[in-house]
């Protein structure tokens, strides 16, 4: 199936070698990016907050802004001391803390006052990067420029990436954007080693983007392709190039991966169990209906087995199945089709993984769908680039009509919607078939226009994915600010998650979001215990903190219980000065158990409790000192707290109002001393009696040092590879000529 014998590319396969050709390639890639951004911006006409949904509201955007705050303060954004739940920014991985492009964008987002506008900018930038990468990948595989532009636009605006990646789980879009470049460059390494350094960097950027499913897809797909190529050609030298590039890129990204591995060992996040084994697992029906804009089917979602209208799931673009059903599959067996054959093989693997049950921490396997969808777009673009490719009338119109009829019978209530979509599809398809005969130069632009039209139709008919909650929090960051209190301003929010799911969240008032700042939006109002993280710390989980910062009814008693080690409660050790408790059981429970020392005020949906007496000063984030310890001087930053202590005869314990994460170390006068965890949450150090000295508590994410060592080794190998390739260069390199047109030109 795959032929990789060495030969020089034919003139038809050889990409431009002149400077003019390079400029043309760049301009076409930029055109694909610009068109994708323009199409992706269509839903913003209807809703300014289209790209600001669910996890993007509760986790990612507030975290991005916190990273920008730390960067502007001159801090490495590894840890946020302003929030207990979700403060381990590097170890949680999805914040892409070590990704240089993401960091620059975070700084840009911080200048935008509205979070929905910031979310739109961040999504659209990466949609453009993805379109450019898919364009380049299509060109490497062998598509002509017009078809590659169509592929770039369609791949970047497929519905899974729009409804889930761009609006919700943003790292899925970020990683897909760089993965497209990585795959294109890895394929180019077959033709020439000159692409290896760039391929390694693209692989590293993909992994640094913070989406484990992209890592799995990149490793699995690349492994399959390398193995298939080697079995066919037995050319170890050429097949080793992408493998070496992949290994270097993976090692360069280890400083982001190993802290996550260490964090998971101490977190409350459990591996996939029987209850979540088949949740959000793609079905064969979903995989096969990638060209139908509307196709409701049964999904075992977060709320159980339900019927969902699911363009966010399977829809790629209406033209992709039509191009594939009219493809000349025999060409995959030729030299010119070898790269497309490899992409098709990887696409099939991604489809199987999307239909597989969850495994380990990689739950909800439908997250593999976008890689399958992009692969289908690439193969379809290659197909329509082949000489003599035409859409046969009966086959083409018949498959559209049959698919629309099947969709119509799935849900009677949606019959009018299905009919509207079916008529649109039939008209567009007939027009394209006619243009192929009468005006062959315009039929692919017509397909592109049809994709844009159907994108507008689908996002208008389904403006929100019904599988995630519909929340409309105030986008202005100033809405969440609260006035600081004397003696400290740490906030604690007590609410039941059910309040944010009342009537799918559509009737929530602004007061709910302003007073009960769900998720990590709490840090927009100042330091907060309450936050959100997909990887909960074990200590906070034991206190009953749950999804989006909510708490169970018995959690109030746990927060106010006296810790036997310190003789203090959680809220005292956390230096909480303000508690905002949801009106009802939680507010009554806190009022009954907290006792005197708190004054209360009735707000719209909650009761605000504030301390009558200020929390004793730190210094810094110190919440308790026992024995006869006395501080002479102190300095503190996000990751480091230093105390100069006077001589003591008793010694004592020091507790910091921080959440413990793996990686805290302490030194007393330069010697390591143990860091203990009290109340399951707080880092603590026991200071021995004797002469005074300096106690330093430092957070350095566990696994970071090993990761940096591996990255340093990879950087040396990468640098040596660059020097070796430069010495071996005997002629000027052009955009494609030194590597051929991908695998198919491996000479």
Relevant terms:
747 residues, alpha+beta, Immunoglobulin-like, 3 domains, five-stranded antiparallel sheet, globular, disordered N terminus
Q: Care to describe what's here?
A:
It is a single chain. 47% of the residues lie in helices and 10% in strands. The chain folds into three domains: 37-461, no CATH class; 477-611, no CATH class; 622-699, Sandwich (Immunoglobulin-like), CATH 2.60.40. The strands form four sheets. It has a five-stranded antiparallel sheet, with no helix packed on it. The two termini are 19 Å apart. The model is unreliable at 1-17 and 730-747 (pLDDT under 50). With 747 residues, the chain is an alpha+beta fold. A hairpin with a 3-residue loop joins strand 8 (631-636) and strand 9.
Instruction: Measure the end-to-end span.
Output: 19 Å
Class from helix and strand fractions:
alpha+beta
Average pLDDT, rounded to a whole number, is 86
Instruction: Please count the beta strands (DSSP E, at least 2 residues each).
Output: 15
SS field, number of helical segments: 26
Largest sheet descriptor: 5 strands, antiparallel
The number of distinct structural domains comes to: 3
Basic shape = globular
User: How helical, in percent, are the residues?
Assistant: 40-55%
In the sheet with the most strands, the strands line up as 8-9-15-11-12
Please indicate the percent range of residues in DSSP E strands (runs of 2 or more). Answer: 5-15%
- Rg, Cα atoms, Å: 28 Å
Q: Low-confidence stretches at least 5 residues in length (pLDDT < 50)?
A: 1-17, 730-747
């Amino acid at each position: 199936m795959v032929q990789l014998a060495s030969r020089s590319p034919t003139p038809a396969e050889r990409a431009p070698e002149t400077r003019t050709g390079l400029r043309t390639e760049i301009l076409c890639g930029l055109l694909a990016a610009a068109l994708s951004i323009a199409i992706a911006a269509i839903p913003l006409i209807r809703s300014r907050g289209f790209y600001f949904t669910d996890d993007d509201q509760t986790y990612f955007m507030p975290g991005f802004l916190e990273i920008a705050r730390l960067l502007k303060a001159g801090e490495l954004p590894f840890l946020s001391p302003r929030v207990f739940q979700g403060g381990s920014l590097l170890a949680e991985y999805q914040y892409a803390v070590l990704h240089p492009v993401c960091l620059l964008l975070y700084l840009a987002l911080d200048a935008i006052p509205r979070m929905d506008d910031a979310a739109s900018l961040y999504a659209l930038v990466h949609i453009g990067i993805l379109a450019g990468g898919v364009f380049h990948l299509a060109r490497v595989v062998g598509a002509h420029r017009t078809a590659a532009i169509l592929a770039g636009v369609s791949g970047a605006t497929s519905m899974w990436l729009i409804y889930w990646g761009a609006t919700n789980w943003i790292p899925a879009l970020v990683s897909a954007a760089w993965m497209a470049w990585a795959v294109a460059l890895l394929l180019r390494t077959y033709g020439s080693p000159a692409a290896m350094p760039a391929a390694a960097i693209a692989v590293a950027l993909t992994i640094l983007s913070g989406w484990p499913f992209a890592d799995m897809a990149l490793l699995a797909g690349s492994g399959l392709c390398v193995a298939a190529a080697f079995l066919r050609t037995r050319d170890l030298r050429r097949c080793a190039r992408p493998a070496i590039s992949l290994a270097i890129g993976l090692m360069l990204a280890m400083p982001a991966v190993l802290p996550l591995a260490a964090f998971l060992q101490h977190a409350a996040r459990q591996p996939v169990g029987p209850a979540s084994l088949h949740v959000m697992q793609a079905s064969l029906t979903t995989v096969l209906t990638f060209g139908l804009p509307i196709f409701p089917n049964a999904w075992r979602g977060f709320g159980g087995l339900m019927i969902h209208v699911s363009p966010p799931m399977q829809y790629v673009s209406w033209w992709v199945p039509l191009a594939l059903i009219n493809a000349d599959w025999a060409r995959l067996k030729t030299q010119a089709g070898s790269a497309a054959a490899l992409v098709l093989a990887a696409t099939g693997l991604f489809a199987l993984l999307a239909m597989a049950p969850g495994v380990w921490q990689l739950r909800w396997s439908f997250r593999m769908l976008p890689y399958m969808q992009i692969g289908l777009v690439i193969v379809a673009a290659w197909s329509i680039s082949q000489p003599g490719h035409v859409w046969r009338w009966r086959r083409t119109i018949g498959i559209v009509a049959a698919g629309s009829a099947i969709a119509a019978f799935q849900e009677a209530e949606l019959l009018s919607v299905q009919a509207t979509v079916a008529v649109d599809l039939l008209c567009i398809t007939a027009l394209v078939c006619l243009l192929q005969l009468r005006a062959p130069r315009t039929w692919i632009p017509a397909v592109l226009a049809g994709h844009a039209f159907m994108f507008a139709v689908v996002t208008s008919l389904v403006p929100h994915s019904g599988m995630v909650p519909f929340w409309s929090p105030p986008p202005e960051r100033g809405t969440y600010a609260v006035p600081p209190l004397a003696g400290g301003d740490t906030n604690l929010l007590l609410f039941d998650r059910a309040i944010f799911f009342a009537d799918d969240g559509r009737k929530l008032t602004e007061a709910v979001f302003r007073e009960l700042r769900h998720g990590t939006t709490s840090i927009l109002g100042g330091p907060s215990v309450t936050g959100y993280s997909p990887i909960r710390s074990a200590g906070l989980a034991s206190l009953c903190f749950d999804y989006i910062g909510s708490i169970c009814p018995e959690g109030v008693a746990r927060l106010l219980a006296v810790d036997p080690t310190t003789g203090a409660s959680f809220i005292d050790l956390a230096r909480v000065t303000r508690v905002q408790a949801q009106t009802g059981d939680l507010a009554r429970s806190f009022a009954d158990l907290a006792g005197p020392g708190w004054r209360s005020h009735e707000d719209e949906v909650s009761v605000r409790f504030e301390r009558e007496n200020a929390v004793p000063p730190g210094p810094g984030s110190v919440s308790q000192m026992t024995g006869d310890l006395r501080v002479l001087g102190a300095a503190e930053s996000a990751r480091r707290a230093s105390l100069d202590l006077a001589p003591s005869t008793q010694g004592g314990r020091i507790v910091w109002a921080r959440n413990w994460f793996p990686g805290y170390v302490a030194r007393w006068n330069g010697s390591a001393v143990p860091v203990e965890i009290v109340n399951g949450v707080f880092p603590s150090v026991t200071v021995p009696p004797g002469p005074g000295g300096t106690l330093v508590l430092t957070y350095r994410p566990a696994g970071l040092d090993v990761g940096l060592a591996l990255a340093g080794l990879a950087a040396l190998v990468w640098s040596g590879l660059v020097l070796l390739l430069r010495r071996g260069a005997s002629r000027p390199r052009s955009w494609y000529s030194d590597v051929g047109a991908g695998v198919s030109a491996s000479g």
